[in-house]
Design brief:
heterodimer, A: 122 residues, alpha/beta, Immunoglobulin-like, 18% helix, elongated, B: 747 residues, alpha+beta, seven-stranded mixed beta sheet, 27 helices, binds copper (II) ion, transmembrane helix (chain A), EfeO_Cupredoxin (chain A), transmembrane (chain A), membrane (chain A), Cupredoxin domain-containing protein (chain A)
């Protein structure tokens, strides 16, 4: 009886993990902004907020990061495909210049890949 | 002057400002101050930017009247660093405290368990006692480990999982299970009525301790940028209205006239107007010998004025100075990734959810197939796997080393643009070197003069003749005469004969200077001069014949001298296993003479600029990894084509932006330094990756219990917590070893 219960819970957990992290619908936390607007990305508690950003492609843009998380993982933000990285000051806005680039998805993350986000140029 | 003053900008740091409402109040108050054109607040930075000629003090007064406080911001970048350091320090102490409290509860509890072996709940008294303990542990989880839980929750909502997730799940599971034991012990088999409160507390304590030590060690990895920032002066002595005033560096503008006295740092980039001095540029270029600067010479911010007073005009200030650009570039490169990290990146991206699945599967296996007490084993396995699996170490393996490596390079005048260039520099096969300016000094010099009579007199006549000529070789002759302080005269009837030479009349004597064709044309027999000229030509020199009044008087030879340190640097590069090839537009004979002297394997002479790129491409087609060394602008296509382009020389703005590696010093030693540094860094990265991979690939199965049949023991979650704390600490410390890197070159 208990055995069945525990096993069922275990299997359900595995299914839940797979669904939530890989298959599940990614709710649109994405923000679309015009180049002239200020977009602030708060770095706090292990996530970028918002973590999906949409920008029009072909224009340079500026992102404003506000790091409120003292943990060292969050010290840098890296856009590997755009060859951009920036050291984020704590409790202070750091601007990151995004050059005009081709449309596409450009993931960004902290040094340890713990904090992750996607920049979509379209 | 007045116009410049109008454009002046002052930055203030505000205190007491917290809401958007304050912004308007302050902005309008400051706008009321006489001379203020515009006032703008950045709420995130808590700064106020004032445009206009208003006195800073009256702006501050206005802010105070509005009920807040302000001060003039000093050297913002450096101050930001200091604040950053202070905050890091606070965070460090905070982590230490958390760790001390958590361990303060966890350690005695663990000792109790080990000594008395009474960690089970069998009576109502046990329930009560452990219930209290459970609440104390809960307080520890909330106060010392709260950030793991809030981070995990937030990440979960974003469909992502981080190390917080693992720590929160691990410690949370242990606590929940223990609480279940306390509340309803009768529902569980007797062997499983064991509590694990000490594990939760200990894990939180150990991981916080590891993080604290990591914060400490990380601070040291960025030492290089700190050193560069210290080169920036905070104030400058500016001439305003005929007076010398000390101004904060932010207020210096291009066009200002500045004064630096002996022993002072040069505050901004500029050009000398008056005075002469020796300037030590070693901090920027790695060049140990001070450079003589006089009127018209360029000065770079951050270099040290040694012995004279200089008046100069500011040309580039603030973020435009070369030093600022270098700092920016180093900072950017420090955060970049190396290709070798791709796999680790991919793994750590999906790692945490995979580990969660592994943990559940392992727990189920223990529950269904394992020996009794099954529930307890299941819990220990679940907790240990979750805790030990944090991929932090894996994620840190490359960035930490790149950070130290790039910074170290900057210290030796080697600016690496990104991690990729750093990685590729370590396994080059061929180094293609541009001759002029890299192997040689780049400006021809008079090397030999042989004459029938007085050689100084001949040189005087030839230099007088050449004064009017624009041929590059002429400059070498004139310079040589100047060095000997000979009095030159103006020639009359000067004539340049294309592809032959020049002729003219000086003090009534008809002078001819040119090649053998010129002498043939004028019917002057060369005699035994021809043999002597051939000897010099074979040594790679350009020889010219000189005749006075129709009679051969002597020969002079001009050559672009080989740089003093070229031979030593090439020996170093050969020792590093590189094959060297030379590219030059010069003629075959002089190129080969240089190559022989320097022991260069192959020579490509008489090239057009576009040939250089073709040769690099051909080498690559033959399967070689090619490094190209050139002086930036004319070699740009070849530099871009090569796997790694080393721009050598003054480190012009263009070169800094376009080359893979920029060498601040015009020496091939820089390339050798770069290769050595790259190998040291890559070695370090491999050690880190190996450590992290081994740790995770061995750690997870051990935590899952594969050793149980052999040892009869499961990995304690506490040991897992300690191991996790150690892993990233090990990686950061190992990366720090790179700070002791020294190139093999000895001065
Ligand atoms: Cu982490």
């Amino acid at each position: 009886m208990i055995a069945t219960l525990v096993n069922t819970i275990g299997v359900l957990l595995i299914i839940a993990i797979i669904w939530w992290f890989w298959l599940g619908p990614r709710r649109g936390a994405a923000k679309t902004v015009a180049v002239s607007e200020q977009l602030q990305i708060v770095v706090k508690d292990g996530v970028y907020e918002p973590d999906h950003i949409r920008l029009p492609s072909g224009h340079a843009a500026t992102l404003h990061f506000l790091r409120e998380d003292p943990s060292p993982c969050s010290e840098w933000v890296i856009f590997p495909d755009l060859e951009i990285s920036a050291e984020l000051a704590l409790n202070k806005e750091t601007t990151v210049e995004i050059p005009a680039a081709k449309p596409g998805k450009y993931p960004f993350s902290c040094q340890m890949q713990m904090y992750r986000g996607t920049l979509t140029l379209e | 002057m007045a116009r410049e003053q109008q454009a002046a900008q002052t930055l203030f740091r505000l205190s007491g400002v917290s809401c958007a409402g304050c912004v308007n109040k302050i902005e309008s108050a400051v706008q009321g101050v006489a001379g203020v054109q515009d006032a703008r607040i950045n709420l995130a930075d808590k700064t106020l930017k004032v445009q206009g000629a208003a006195a800073p003090q009256s702006c501050i007064e206005a802010v105070r009247q509005a009920g807040y406080d302000a001060e003039v911001a000093k050297s913002s970048e450096r101050q930001r660093r200091e604040e950053q350091r202070a905050q890091e320090e606070r965070h460090y102490h905070q982590l230490l405290w958390r760790s001390a409290i958590a361990l303060g509860v966890g350690l005695p509890l663990m000792a109790w368990g080990l000594i008395t072996d009474k960690m089970s709940v069998n009576s109502f008294a046990d329930q009560l006692a452990w219930g209290v303990m459970g609440l104390i542990t809960l307080a520890i989880l909330v106060f010392c480990g709260g950030q793991f839980f809030s981070g995990a929750w937030k990440a979960l909502r974003h469909h992502s999982a981080t190390m917080d997730t693992l720590v929160a799940l691990g410690t949370g599971t242990a606590w929940l299970f223990s609480m279940l034991v306390v509340l309803v012990p009768h529902l569980l088999p007797e062997a499983a009525r064991h509590v694990y409160f000490e594990a939760s507390a200990m894990i939180i304590g150990l991981i916080s301790l590891g993080q604290a030590l990591e914060v400490r060690a990380r601070g040291r990895t960025s030492a290089a940028v700190e050193k560069l920032l210290e080169l920036q002066d905070t104030s400058a002595r500016v001439l305003r209205d005929g007076k010398e005033v000390d101004l904060p560096i932010e207020q210096v503008q291009a066009g200002d006239q500045l004064r630096v006295r002996p022993g002072e740092k040069i505050p901004v980039d500029g050009m000398v107007l008056e005075g002469g001095s020796l300037v030590d540029e070693s901090m920027l270029t790695g060049e140990p010998v001070p450079v003589k600067k006089g009127e018209g010479d360029n000065l770079a911010a951050g270099t040290l004025n040694k012995n004279g007073s200089l008046l100069f005009r500011a040309e580039k200030v603030g973020a435009d100075t070369r030093l600022a650009q270098i700092i920016e570039m180093v900072k950017n490169a420090q955060g970049s990734r190396v290709p070798i990290a791709r796999l680790a990146d991919k793994i750590s991206a999906i790692f945490v959810p995979v580990v969660m699945i592994i943990a559940v599967v392992a727990a189920l296996v223990w529950f269904n197939l394992g020996p009794d007490p099954r529930a307890a084993h299941m819990l220990v396995v679940l907790t240990s796997v979750l805790i030990i699996a944090c991929p932090c170490a894996l994620g840190l393996a490359t960035p930490m080393s790149v950070m130290v490596g790039v910074g170290k390079g900057a210290e030796y005048g080697v600016l690496v643009r990104n991690g990729k260039a750093l990685q590729q520099s370590c396994n080059l096969d061929v180094l293609v070197v541009d001759k002029t300016g890299t192997l040689t000094e780049g400006s021809p010099r008079l090397t030999d003069i042989e004459s029938e009579g007085d050689s100084d007199e001949l040189l005087r006549l030839l230099a007088s003749l050449e004064q009017g000529s624009e041929h590059p070789l002429a400059e070498a002759v004139v310079t040589a005469a100047h060095e000997k302080k000979l009095d030159l005269q103006k020639p009359s009837d000067f004539e340049a004969i294309t592809a032959h030479g020049v002729m003219g009349v000086i003090s009534g004597k008809k002078i001819l200077l040119g090649n053998s064709k010129l002498m043939q044309r004028e019917n002057i027999p060369l005699g035994d001069w021809k043999a002597r000229a051939n000897n010099l030509a074979e040594a790679g020199r350009t020889v010219m014949y000189a005749a006075v009044d129709g009679v051969m008087q002597g020969i002079i030879a001009v050559a672009d001298p080989i740089r003093d340190d070229a031979a030593a640097a090439i020996a170093r590069l050969r020792k590093l296993g590189l094959r060297l090839e030379m590219l030059t537009g010069d003629n075959q004979a002089s190129a080969e003479a240089v190559a022989r002297h320097l022991k260069i394997d192959k020579v490509h002479a008489e090239l057009l600029p576009e040939d250089k790129e073709r040769i690099v491409a051909q080498l690559q087609k033959d399967g070689a990894r090619v490094g190209m060394v050139g002086d930036g602008i004319n070699d740009a296509p070849a530099l871009a084509r090569a796997d790694v382009g080393f721009a050598i020389g003054a480190g012009t703005d263009v070169a800094i932006e376009s080359a893979d590696v920029t060498l601040m010093r015009s020496s091939l030693h820089g390339v050798a330094n770069a290769v050595e540094l790259s190998r040291a860094t890559l070695g370090n990265i491999k050690q880190n990756l190996f450590g992290a991979f081994i740790y995770n690939t061995l750690g997870i199965p051990i935590a899952a219990g594969v050793l149980f049949p052999l040892t009869g023991m499961l990995l304690s979650p506490i040991v897992a917590g300690a191991a996790m704390a150690l892993s990233s600490l090990t990686v950061v410390s190992n990366a720090n070893r790179l700070r002791f890197f020294k190139p093999s070159e000895v001065h």
